[in-house]
Design goal:
The structure holds two protein chains of two kinds.
Chain A: H1 2-35, H2 40-65, H3 74-89, H4 95-117, H5 122-141, E1 152-153, H6 162-184, H7 187-197, H8 199-204, H9 209-235, E2 237-238, H10 240-243, H11 247-259, H12 265-281, H13 288-302, H14 306-315
Antiparallel strand pairs in A: 1-2
Chain B: H1 2-20, H2 22-26, E1 31-38, H3 45-48, H4 51-64, E2 67-69, E3 72-82, H5 87-99, E4 105-108, H6 111-125, E5 129-132, H7 136-141, E6 149-153, H8 156-169, E7 179-184, H9 188-203, E8 207-209, H10 222-231, E9 235-240, H11 242-254, E10 261-266, H12 271-275, E11 285-288, H13 305-315, H14 323-342, H15 347-355, E12 358-361, E13 364-367, E14 370-372, E15 375-379, E16 383-390, E17 393-400
Parallel strand pairs in B: 1-3, 1-4, 4-5, 5-6, 6-15, 7-8, 7-9, 9-10, 10-11
Antiparallel strand pairs in B: 2-3, 11-16, 12-13, 14-15, 16-17
Helix pairs in contact in B: 4-14, 5-6, 10-11, 14-15
Classes of the chains: A mainly alpha, B alpha/beta.
Chain lengths: ~325, ~425
């Protein structure tokens, strides 16, 4: 009992320390970005890490915290990428308009999609999210307005430098981490955990399941959309196959499983490992997926709660 | 065991961290860095065959014959990354080459699927780019203005005319009303071909049987087969990646479709890809951009087409040098000529040097004197070929040289299993 209380005290102390530390890290990263002292290559690594953290947090919010396992978050990555391409290429909109508009498109699209998806649960929900993303890919493949399979180019003049994209990615990452952090410590967060562990019991004590699920789904769409638009801003082009590819979800699942699903820190740890490994394995053609798969298996076997989960157990870090 | 796995993970991560910084630190002033994104794995892996061999040959040559750039003798380093035949990865690897490896020049090569995303990244970062193995039209369509990229290949009008000459040899001349079944994927390459073929087929008095473009990596072609069967087509024409063509061709033949000729781009260029079709490969016709019998000699190394092919065969288990590998050789020749001419690695000077090149490569003469929309390009040669069996082995014979008569024919049209009507 005493040990338990001591543990709680430790947790409470660490809770206070982690938040300002996180904010301090973001301040330092902003300062580095604005100062211009970071080499372009370092910024390229960091911005990829930031975006995978954001995507990971969005997926984690749905799958790790709310128990709504999704295989179709690429729907919003692709939609946001296309929104950015259409707004810049056809309507000649400037950068400050593009990102919020792309995220808004995702949220608006998520409303009718959720109405269909929420009729399903568990495995059926997961498969349905994937089907929705596949359907969107087919739609864009055959839509002349967006160039069909030829894809679209994001046209901005002057094109934002890697420094600007770094700052955008950092902002998206910060929004994602702080939003998920706040949620997990709110009434909504407790509701999510209750819903994940036992939806019937959660509903019986007054939790509005539909509203909770919708809130989470729209938030995940918003964060994925913001991350997706910056991803494609960095790439410069979007094709239906690249925007709506299942590989987005595969990457994000890797990020969350390695880092630890159901924890805020999990996607941060997972994204750092994923990006560094992927960049390193670029020197060894064909080995990338084999290595990533092997590491995932090892972590699932030996650290089923991911690295963050294992550390949390070991050090009682919250 | 848990501790062991944890330690292993930390080691892998530490290794990744150190390796991520390696390339940039390798940059030395005595080496010119050339970036190259190659489909080493994935659906286009056949096109990427021979890349490592070609890179070694040209790198070794320049090591023995350094070029004078910025007042000092320099060698070249070609940094190759795998695109995994994925357009997303193409962009990422091109960015990695520019930002991490600090390349002086980009090579965009191996079908429009690779060339377009790589060239677009080069344009964005203002890095000189030598593009090849992408028909001019789809690349020119992909951006309003290319400031840093020059392409060396053929136009789609030339492709159409080359294929038309092959149909004519198989008894389907213009004005014959022959029905041409179209097989194009819904991607940048397929869309550009599709638009042009539909227009020119109508102009030449053919009847286009168009089932519509299909999404790449489709496995079910039963609707295409049914349409071709009911229309009783005479010709199958198109351009596809190998897995798509394998699936489509099997479905079409299984449905009982019999044609006079099959003319395919991209997927039927390589012996390995065509061999996978089994008996049905015999008689398929395709484009020939380079052949060991070509009369050209490299202006850089002085090696002729036949000799280069012999060298390749000796070091690659007797395999014929693939056409894309010959173009990779030519692209690197162009890169070396560019730095020789520019005399500097300053980007603007390198770009201007590319545009002013007038050289002979292993694939023929290259002079960037033409313009399509915002893209400067050089036309390279194009002939028509047919896969024929010789002593049980499939060999690509040049059977049409109507566009470039200086190239010698190596065979004549023969009916085969792919021409069963």
């Amino acid at each position: 009992m005493m040990r338990k209380i001591a543990g709680l005290t430790d947790t409470a102390r660490l809770k206070i320390n982690v938040f300002p530390a996180t904010v301090l890290v973001f301040v330092i990263l902003y300062a580095l970005g604005f100062s211009g002292i970071l080499p372009a290559n370092v910024m390229r690594y960091l911005l990829q890490i930031f975006l995978y953290i954001a995507l990971g947090e969005a997926w984690n919010l749905m799958s790790g915290f709310a128990g709504m396992t999704s295989l179709g978050q690429q729907l919003y990555v692709g939609l946001a990428g296309y929104a950015a391409a259409i707004l810049t290429g056809i309507y000649m909109q400037p950068l400050p308009t593009v990102l919020p508009a792309a995220a808004l498109v995702c949220v608006i699209a998520a409303i009718p999609v959720s109405a269909i998806l929420f009729r399903m649960q568990g495995m059926y929900f997961a498969v349905a999210t994937w089907v929705a993303a596949e359907a969107a890919e087919k739609l864009f493949l055959n839509w002349k307005f967006v160039g069909q399979g030829s894809g679209m180019t994001i046209r901005l003049s002057p094109y934002p430098s890697v420094g600007v994209i770094y700052l955008l990615a950092l902002t998206v990452c910060m929004l994602a981490v702080l939003t998920v952090y706040r949620i997990t410590r709110s009434r909504l967060g407790m509701g999510l955990l209750a819903m994940r562990d036992d939806p019937v019991a959660a509903a019986s004590i007054g939790l509005n399941l539909t509203r909770t699920r919708l809130t989470v789904y729209l938030l995940a769409a918003l964060i994925s959309g913001l991350a997706g638009s910056v991803f494609f801003l960095n790439k410069g082009m979007i094709y239906p196959e690249s925007g709506f590819s299942i590989s987005w979800t595969v990457s994000v699942v890797f990020v969350c499983i390695i880092g630890g699903a159901g924890t805020v820190a999990g996607p941060v740890i997972g994204a750092v490992i994923y990006v560094l490994l992927r960049e390193y394995l670029a020197h060894y053609p064909g080995w990338s997926n084999i290595m990533l798969g092997a590491i995932t298996l090892l972590v699932i076997f030996f650290f089923p709660e991911g690295i963050a989960g294992a550390l949390k157990k070991k050090k009682r870090i919250n | 065991m848990k501790r062991f796995v944890a330690v292993m993970l930390i080691i892998v991560l530490a290794l990744s961290l150190t390796a991520c910084g390696t390339s940039a630190s390798e940059k030395t002033s005595s080496v010119i860095k050339i970036g190259y994104v190659n489909p080493t794995t994935g659906a286009l892996a056949g096109n990427g065959e021979g890349c490592a061999w070609v890179v070694k040959k040209i790198t070794d040559y320049v090591a023995e014959h350094p070029i004078t750039v910025d007042g000092q003798k320099k060698t070249i380093q070609v940094i190759v990354y795998d695109s995994a035949s994925d357009q997303n990865t193409c962009s990422e690897m091109a960015q990695k080459l520019i930002e991490e490896d600090k390349i002086d020049l980009m090579i965009a090569i191996q079908t429009p699927n690779t060339v377009i995303p790589v060239a677009q990244v080069a344009e964005r970062y203002g890095v000189p780019c030598i593009a090849t193995q992408s028909p001019v039209d789809p690349l020119a369509e992909s951006l309003e203005k290319f400031k840093w990229t020059c392409d060396a290949f053929y136009t789609l009008d030339q492709v159409y005319e080359s294929q038309r000459a092959l149909w004519t040899q198989a008894g389907n001349a213009p004005g014959s009303g022959a029905k041409v079944g179209l097989l194009f994927a819904n991607d940048a390459d397929g869309t550009a071909w599709h638009e042009l073929f539909v227009r020119r087929l109508a102009e030449d008095g053919y009847e286009a049987v168009d089932p519509g473009q299909y999404p790449s990596r489709t496995t079910d072609f039963s609707n295409v087969a049914a349409k071709f069967k009911s229309a009783e087509i005479d010709v199958i024409a198109g351009t596809n990646i190998p897995p798509d063509f394998m699936n489509a061709y099997s479905a079409i033949i299984s449905a009982g479709v019999r044609v006079d000729c099959v003319t395919m781009g991209k997927c039927c260029l390589l012996q390995s890809d065509v061999e996978a079709l089994g008996e049905l490969a015999d008689g398929i016709m395709t484009q020939v951009w380079w052949d060991p019998a070509y009369p050209y000699t490299s202006g850089l190394t002085g090696i002729g087409s036949e000799e280069l092919n012999r060298m390749y065969a000796e070091e690659n288990n007797g395999r014929t040098m693939p056409q894309p590998a010959a173009y990779a050789y030519a692209a690197l020749e162009l890169a070396v000529h560019t730095f020789e001419k520019a005399g500097t690695t300053r980007r603007e000077a390198v770009r201007d040097a590319i545009r002013s090149l007038d050289v002979t490569t292993i694939v023929g003469h290259v002079k960037y004197d033409q313009q399509m929309k915002g893209l400067t390009y050089a036309c390279t040669t194009l002939c028509g070929g047919q896969w024929q069996r010789e002593n049980g082995e499939l060999v690509l014979k040049v059977i049409d040289n109507s566009l470039y008569p200086e190239i010698q024919l190596t065979g004549s049209y023969q009916p085969g299993n792919a021409t069963q009507k």
